[in-house]
Structures are given as C-alpha cells and as structure tokens.
Write a structure and sequence with these properties.
Rossmann fold, Luciferase, domain 3, 32% helix, 26% strand, globular
Length: 549
C-alpha cells in the first residue's frame, strides 16, 4: 500500500459521486460536491503560483508550499485539505485559540504560501501578520455576509466562483502528479512547549491512522481501486468527530472516513462543545460513531443524557483520547449507553494512533493500561534497547516505522526524538511506560509534566486520575511548584461540583488511600473552571501560573 491522499479521495468520490460526504446543519455536500470544490480551490492556488515540490531533502525540511487552515470544523477545512493536496501543497493545522504572538511564531515557522481562515479570526491574524516575514495569500471564509475583509484578503467563495473551468491536466502540468511521498504536516499542540510541525509522508500517516477506516469496507485495502470499489458496496455509516480538526485525532477520523467513502456529520455549533447539540445531531443524523476527548467531553455528555431523552440507538462506538477518561466516567457512559463500545486510544503527532483499550458492558473497565498497536514499543531509560514484556522498571514509550521524517525547521529536536535503537529508527514519544507481562502497556505520563519531589518522580496524570475519581471533583490539573524543602512539590488545581463542601483535608485523606504519601498534593488550588484547550487537553502553563500566585 502506498497512497496519496488526493488520488485516493478523487477515486472514491468518482466512484460514489452522489453519496453524502459531509453534513453540517443545513449543509449537505455529496462526494462530487466536495471533490469539485476541492479541485476549484486547487486550481485557484495553482494559478496564484504554488510551486512544484522539491524532493530529496533532510527530514526536517519541506520542499512543498504550505497552506494554513485557521478554521473551525466545516467543509472548508476538508476542502482546504484535499484542495491543497491536489496541487501538491501541504495543509497544516492552526490552533484558533492562539494569541497573535503565538500565531506569529507558528506562521514564521511554517512560512505559508496561503492561509484559509474564518472571519472571526481576522483581528488576531491581522496583528500576527505584522510580525511575520512573508506575505501569504489570504482566503477568508465569511461567517456573515456583512463581514469586512482584512487588507489583502479574498473572499473564499468568490475565489472558488472565479474558477469556471477545472482541468486536472492543468494541475499536473504545473506541479506534477501527486505522490505518496508528498508531505503531511501536523503541528503539535504546544501544551508543554512551542508547537512543532511533524513531517510525515502521506502514505505513512495513512498507514498508522487512517487505514483502519478502510478496513470497515470488507475488502483488503491493497490498492486505490480496491478501496473505491469497496466504497461503492459499503453500507451507510455516519461518524461525528467532535473535537476541532486542528487536532490530530479528530482530523484522522474525518479524513479516514472520507477516504473510505463514509459520511461525516458535524454538530450545529462547531465553535464550542454543547452536549445537547451533540445528542440532537446523533438523533437527527443517526450517527454511528464519534470521537471525544476524555472526561472533559464524556462527563457533560452523560449529564445531558441523564437529564433529557434522546434516541441514541444508532450510536455504537465512541473513541476517546488526548486526555484521561477515568474508570468511573467510562462506567457511567456504559450505563447510559449499554450497547456502546468505548475505545480509549493513545497516540501523538509523532506516532499516530498506537495504543487501544476497549471497554464494553460485561467486561472490566480500566484506565491507563492499553494493548499496543503494531510497531508500539517501550525502550529502556538510556535509549539503547527495546524492552521485553514484563521488564523491570520504567521505560520510554516509542514507535517503530512508519514514523515522521522529523520536525519542520528543527534539526536538533528531530535528531533527539527520531533516533536509532537497536539499529531500528524509532520515535521517542516523551511518555513514560511499562510493558507488562501480558503485553499491555501501562502508560504513566509525560516526562515533560513529571514532578521531581525530594528525589521521587510523580507523574501528573496519575494524580489527576486519582483526583477526578473523587465524587465531588469535576476536573483537575496537577503541576510541580517550587519548594525549599523538596525542590518541587505537588500542587493540584481543582474544579468542584456546585455546592460542594469537601475540605482540603478530606481530599488529602481520600487520595492517601490510593497514592503514596509523596504523590499526594501539598497544595490545593480551587478554581471556578479548569482551563483546557478546545480539544480537552490540560493547559499546564495556565495551571503553573495559577499555582504560583
């Protein structure tokens, strides 16, 4: 298998032109609609001067033009992705929560040929553009007809309407035939450092994060033709990726489903998470599968189901990842949705999806222990050996090929993360882990948020899991703060349920039943709302600031 994403999508869309590809409120786009709009965008970009890719570069270099997607979830995000690929440019994700300074950093790193953005972000983008070294093509997706375009921007729909004829030969004559080794770029979230652009071959990211959806077609995904033929005979299936497409997991679910001929549905409101909106969409569109991010999404979904009735009979599969989904919350989901299968999936921008924990009624519900996907390994502390099952001590979670080529524009970090262990090139993912005797991986937490207190290591995620298992704690983030005695001490930033009367001493006593004394927080900070990203990931920088005030 060696697939270029545009060629695969083009073949699938040609095979099933009238099937609905994307649903968002009143918007119903068929595969032919999505294909035609993507080709028009590709033609527009090509007419504006997208360059032909350069090959044979170092793993931290890109020889292709880049297109920034500064967008909420919607058809424009998908068109921006496939339209870029059709002209052999590389789309990249832009976190729409960034300040103008953070955005300027990202744009200076990515050096985009073009940026496609929603009009809501015009002011932040205008400010950021003052501090970047290039002048990208600007395509604005208006959210209201009276929105005013910023200086130099073109209305996205007008740009597409200006293309009256589309000729695939025009694209190939200018940029060449799309190739499986064309790049895929996914920027990391930047929650524990500055964002970095992971560089993948399209064929490799498809293999590790999207091929699984083609497997549902009932055919061996050995060729583009086989997948397209499988899509023709596939039964209707609707998936709803809930987090923003600017994050990898949701993006992989959306692209993987579309590359297999299935339908993507979006909630009516894509600017914020609304549990009632989610369940209305499940009921209306007969959604069969969804992806969420940990307790931050799962708890409100349970609360809404327990307050109001919805027809959830179509929903059979929930994937969750990116943040902790605790045992109690999984059990609560299964109580509300007794026929559901929950797949707790672990992965990263540097690995794709690599760990899976399945929960269903009638089986034990667990958190933090996963079965590894092919290529998932644990290496020793010194990065010298791949560890065997039941190894003694803690190692590093890692992934063997296929993995990224490197980080865009960062040779040093590329060479530190993508290394050779035992003669094999692997990605070191920054998570500490044990490979258990039964083959499961026990995930302990990221080294970057590990707290060294009095010579003992405390993994923040372990303490967070213990905290949110308390019946009066909604959410928690754990960080290390300076201590004269211990060097660092554990601090918990917690959000409580309304009208909670639990004391700090009661919380400490509760934690002491499951955690060693040195892991129990020595300081507890109560906040009205724990701050997380749009995808539900913990904001450790904010928690550090709050903890030290």
């Amino acid at each position: 298998m060696s697939f270029n994403h545009w060629e695969l999508f083009d073949a699938v869309a040609t095979a099933i032109p009238d099937r609905i590809a994307l649903i968002h409120g009143n918007i119903r786009l068929t595969y032919n609609d999505l294909r035609e709009r993507s080709i028009k965008l590709a033609t527009y970009l090509c007419e504006k001067g997208v360059k032909k890719p350069q090959q044979a570069l170092n793993g931290w270099e890109s020889g292709q033009d880049h297109v920034g997607l500064y967008l909420y979830n919607g058809n424009e995000y998908i068109e921006g992705t496939f339209g870029s690929y059709a002209t052999r440019a590389v789309p990249f994700n832009i976190n729409y929560k960034y300040t103008s300074d953070e955005l300027a950093y990202l744009l200076n790193d990515a050096k985009p040929f073009a940026i496609i953005f929603h009009s809501s972000f015009s002011n932040t983008l205008s400010e950021a553009l003052k501090h970047i070294k290039i002048k990208p093509l600007l395509l604005c997706v208006k959210e209201n007809n009276n929105d005013i375009l910023i200086d130099g921007a073109v209305d996205y729909e007008d740009a597409l309407l200006s293309i009256t004829n589309t000729y695939p030969t025009f694209l190939e004559e200018n940029v060449g035939k799309p190739d499986p080794s064309d790049l895929y770029i996914l920027y990391t979230g930047g929650t524990t450092g500055m964002p970095k652009g992971t560089l993948w071959y399209q064929k490799d990211i498809y293999e590790v994060s999207m091929k699984v959806f083609a497997a549902r077609l009932g055919v061996a995904p050995i060729s583009i033709e086989a997948i397209a033929n499988g899509a023709v005979n596939a039964s209707r299936a609707v998936s709803m990726p809930l987090p923003p497409f600017m994050h990898g997991a949701s993006q992989w679910v959306a692209l993987g489903n579309l590359l297999a001929g299935f339908t993507i549905a979006l909630p009516d409101d894509v600017k914020r998470f609304d549990a009632a909106d989610f369940w209305r969409t499940v009921e209306r569109e007969k959604v069969e599968s969804t992806v969420i991010v940990g307790d931050a999404f799962a708890r409100p979904l349970c609360e809404e189901l327990e307050k109001n009735h919805y027809d959830t009979s179509s929903l059979v599969f929930i994937a969750t990842g990116g943040a902790i989904t605790t045992k109690d919350v999984k059990a609560r989901l299964l109580k509300n949705l007794p026929n559901i299968i929950i797949a707790d999936v672990g992965g990263s921008s540097e690995s794709g999806a690599i760990l899976t924990n399945i929960s269903r009624n009638g089986s034990e519900v667990d958190t933090g222990k996963f079965f590894p996907n092919p290529g998932t390994i644990v290496v020793d502390e010194a990065f010298q050996h791949i560890l065997d099952k039941g190894h003694d001590g803690i190692g590093w979670l890692a992934k063997t090929s296929p993995i990224p080529l490197g980080y865009l524009n960062d040779q040093e970090k590329s060479m530190k993360t993508f290394i050779k262990v035992g003669g094999e090139r692997v990605a070191i993912l920054g998570d500490r882990a044990r490979l258990l005797e039964n083959g499961q991986v026990e995930l302990l937490g990221r080294e970057s948020v590990t707290i060294n207190t009095g010579g003992e290591k405390v993994f923040a995620e372990e303490v967070e899991t213990a905290l949110v298992s308390h019946p009066e704690i909604v959410d928690a983030i754990v960080v290390g703060i300076p201590s004269e005695r211990w060097g660092s001490q554990v601090c918990a930033v917690i959000e409580l349920y309304e009208n909670s009367s639990v004391t700090d001493n009661e919380i400490v006593k509760f934690l002491s039943c499951s955690l060693a004394k040195f892991k129990v927080p020595k300081k507890i900070v109560r906040v009205h709302k724990v701050k997380r990203s749009a995808a539900g990931k913990a904001d450790y920088a904010w928690a550090h600031k709050i903890s030290n005030e």
